Amino acid sequence: MWIYDIVLLINKKEFFINLKILKNNNERGNNMDKIELKQELDKLSKKSSVEDLQKYIKDMIEVRGFRNSLLERMCLLTEEIGELAKEVRKTDNNLLVDINKNYSSNLENEITDVFICLMGMCELLDMDIVQGLKNKEEINFKREWK
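Above: the chain sequence. Below: its structure as tokens.
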């Protein structure tokens, strides 16, 4: 405690700057960087749980500084759905496309982008998507489908 008081008296400005940085790190809840995020990504596999995926996406959003509102995330989701629709259109043989243009399929990437946006919305709402699925399916089981 005594050393703390001396540092405070000698260099107040630096102390307060350091205090502010520590406060921001505490608000983040972690101090993860891109390297640690990549390590977390490398641990994901087909056997990863939905909770593991939600945690990764939450950490990814934090590390990359994506601090969007729900409305902004909805707009991003809509944009990604549009990109997905375009990819589906390009890969479906029954739809007309410019035959002079060379198309490469990015369908998997676009589906993944939609998934990331949805999971990002779940993260913002602190929503457990598994519980959300169960709740919605309870409603659906009461419906009759033709």
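Confidence is low (pLDDT under 50) at residues 1-29.
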